[in-house]
Design brief:
The chain is built from 4 helices and no strands. By secondary structure, the protein is mostly helical.
Length: about 70
Amino acid sequence: MRVIDLPTRAYGERLAGFGLPPEEVAFLVEMFASMPDGRNAYLSDGVRQVLGREPRDFAAYAAKAAAAGACAVG
């Protein structure tokens, strides 16, 4: 698997090239542009309500999963 950093403008151009309506392209570009800056990062109490345990952030989950081999390729 290869991951590339695609600038939001190029992302929007690709979406438009697939025929998405301009208003959907604008929404998706804005949404994905706001993710890396952390303004949407927070832990809610939904995990506690549903599973009865404290929530943990995604970085902690990913580190534990990777250490257990969840991302192993091959």
